[in-house]
Amino acid sequence: MRNTDLIRRDLGVLWHPCTQMKDHEWLPLVPIRRGKGVWLEDFEGRRYLDAVSSWWVNLFGHANPRINAAVREQLDELEHVILAGFSHAPAVELAERLVEAAPAGLSRCFYADNGSSAVEVALKMSYHYWRNLGRGGKRKFVTLSNSYHGETLGALAVGDVALYKETYKPLLMEAITVPSPDCWQREPGVDWEAHSRAMFAHMEATLAEHADEVAAVIVEPLVQCAGGMRMYHPVYLSLLREACDRHDVHLIADEIAVGFGRTGTLFACEQAGVTPDFLCLSKGLTGGYLPLAAVLTTDAVYQAFYDDYQRLTAFLHSHSYTGNPLACRAALATLDIFRDEPVLARNRELAAAMYDAVRPLEDHPNVGEIRQTGMILAIELVRERAGKVPFDWRERRGLKVYQHALSRGVLLRPLGNVVYFMPPYVISEPEIALLGEVAREGIALAVRD
Ligand SMILES: *Cc1c(COP(=O)(O)O)cnc(C)c1O
Asked: What is the spatial order of strands in the sheet that 39-41 belongs to?
């Protein structure tokens, strides 16, 4: 098979995610035949460095030998079984290990099969918890501006990225949106901590006013990824935990993108020393192999549903592939790698190398900011540095970086005008240097008028 054959057949039948298909009249699809480590390869041997971890899911490389072996072994034992009334070892062992690894106090694991579904589970469980306690009036959710929690209607309703949400607004439940602590928005001379702390006043006022009707606050801890890799200081999470307790409101931590070491710690919440009432996990959970999600929660939540069947307090929610054994085995192999190798320590070196690779852009007139939290580094392109004047979105500057990077064998996929690196943890320092070089070239081309 040749690249062109696959592209032709693809465009004949497929409808791609998050894509204006008409773009493919001039923007070629990239067919991929196989992957190894951080590299993807097409049908003619051309290689691409996967700098976005295939949409933030891959942790330890494509075709990772340990994960491959685990999935192969599982394949000969059990591919899938209903998880209602039945059980299997990979689901149990993974739940045990997630509970052990997660912030203290999260003692129950409910599985789903993708990130949006995990968010739906957390929202429904939170509302249902209050209802079981006779407080059914607590049915609203508080979210941060520019947040992203997935594309299904419930998850979309508690998100705030206009590009994805605006069209569907008439279909969505109403959420209470509070200004984000995003530090890109801070005034000159104010540090991240002071800014994030000051922004908490909005949250405090909202909770004080609405606590009686609010079930939960949902946040992406430390990095609002889909919203353009916007970052904030952990102090906001500490303040939020304390305020949620005081106002009798749940805290849902959506670590679907930031979990599993992306921010420097295994879970981002650790940096604030907080335990959420619900922790949503997916993406990196299986090392980027198979769709799986988990919602971890507390015994207090679990107990509010535990009663005689006739009282109708059970959580009657399911997805067909809930706790799929192959996916659970991939997740277990992923956790084995975290256990056996100094992943987080090595990532600190890689993160420093990532910054070094883009340091020459610090003073670039079209770079508004370079920001980084652990293994996520973002470069905000602007028309003018002073006043952070953005480029018009219709100019699609980021897309020019994408195109240039592809021509140089790198998969960089900017979010609007934000160029970012979020590579698998098996990337090498020379590969990081290549990323930096290609990003610098791409930016130079993209900002030209
Ligand atoms: C990707 C993402 C989701 C949605 O996960 P899907 O598996 O794509 O449904 C939810 N929340 C955050 C923070 C994400 O990055």
From this structure: 34-36, 39-41, 47-50, 410-411
Domain assignment present for residue 271? The answer is yes
Q: Is the pLDDT at 419 greater than 80, yes or no?
A: yes
Locus of tokens 């995610």: 17
Confidence of residue 449 (pLDDT cuts 50, 70, 90): confident
Ligand 1 lining (C-beta closer than 6 Å): 114-116, 119, 148-150, 220, 225-226, 254, 256-257, 282-283
User: Tokens for 81?
Assistant: 């079984």
Q: How confident is the model at residue 323 (pLDDT cuts 50, 70, 90)?
A: very high
State the distance from the centre of ligand 1 to the C-alpha of 79, rounded, in angstroms: 25
Which residue's alpha carbon is at the smallest distance from atom 3 of ligand 1? 150
Q: How far is the CA of 291 from the centre of ligand 1 (A)?
A: 11
Please state, in angstroms and rounded to a whole number, the distance separating the CA atoms of residues 437 and 358: 8
With 0.85 as the threshold, say if the pTM is over it. yes
Range of the structural domain that residue 384 is part of: 32-63+342-446
216 and 126 fall within a common domain? yes
Please check whether residues 106 and 155 belong to one and the same domain.
yes
Q: What is the DSSP letter of 429?
A: H
> Mean pLDDT for the chain?
97
Mutating to test ligand 1, I would choose from 55, 224, 232, 256 the residue with most ligand atoms within 8 A of its C-beta, which is: 256
